[in-house]
Amino acid sequence: MNAPVNMCLAGKGQDDKRAKVRRCEEAVVTVGYLCVMNQELWTYEPDIRRAWTPPAWLYTDQEVWRWMAADVFGTSWQYVADSQDVLLPGMCRPHTMNEGIAPEPVVAVRGADDVVRVLSNVCTHRAAVVVDAPCRAKELRCRYHGRRFGLDGRFVAMPSFGDVEGFPTAADDLAALEVGQWGGMVMAAVKPTVPFTAWIDGLDERLRHLPWAAMAPDTTRNRDYVVRANWALYVENYLEGFHIPFVHPGLNDVLNATDYDTILLPHGVLQIGVARGNEGVFELPTGHPDSGKAVAAWYYWLFPNIMVNVYRWGLSVNIVEPMAIDRTRVRYRTYVWDANELGQGAGADLDRVEREDGDIVESVQRGLRGSIYWRGRYSPSKETGTHHFHGLLHRALSHRLR
Fold first, then answer.
1. pLDDT value, residue 131
2. Where are the domains of the chain?
3. Same fold: 78-191 with 197-376
4. Pick from 47, 53, 46, 58: which is nearest to 378 by CA?
5. Who is most buried in 23, 129, 186, 260, counting CB within 10 A?
């Protein structure tokens, strides 16, 4: 973290607020802290050997949930569509980004100029959704009052508006979001805090030798899971292999937990799963950063909620979507480049692994509902990824509240 941060969210009344401010000012801490209502402080200590995990209210307090909507999901890169969904000019794919926490209706469009754009899907006249279903069109037309837009989002025409002064203006165009593409996915952000290239920095270093040209979506393997727990608990669980021997007996037979490696990235985490044997192991080119290791999988997490799992057969992408403070939808999207490798190694039984993860994360959510647990400590050798996530999350919340 950078400079210390002193943040106090307003209490239910001025007296409560003043009392909470006094309490914050009296706290002696050397790093940033967050005060919420009458709860304990959240301190983030960069040295994991001295650090404590966040307090329970981070996962249960509605005030914090609202700030996460604005400061975490409202400013981050999110999945919108597969590249195949907008493969040809005129193809349109509607999507609601951050549906459960910070909903933003958008539409991915490939224009006549062959450029993929992500546009606001909200008509600039009276806010109706413009594109309701995937389609192919020469222009976009709102079915409410007939306002028309080009595939680049620019206003084209509107019935009965001939007498309107100062019309049209740029405000009548559909707003264009910032767009990035990687691994067959179209990503977008409304107000990104980091450029797309910086956000994905580190992904290509180990993956550029893989057969990307042969990769194709496999919709038959797509799955959606609902986990009755806070989204951050699901992320925390993903970011450490500590639990594998205890929660995933099948996966533990494949991966060697003692050789599990975690690398911290500026905006994410890479975990390297090393195989116990030779099944499903990557053939690495000379000079590869992981040469000499029996790599069974690379697990990439990108802040806050995108997980890219790389196996011999292709990619499994987890899109973690908060639906409520204690409910999360996880969308699994599958991309295959070698179907002959399916069913082998670390990526052989993802459905079972997901269900095991969901079960243990729901157990944590139930534990947090009680009044006794406050917070815990980290394993310096096993939980560096989770600790790094908490640092990024703390910084994201601090951005607006400092």
1. 98
2. 78-191, 197-376
3. no
4. 53
5. 186
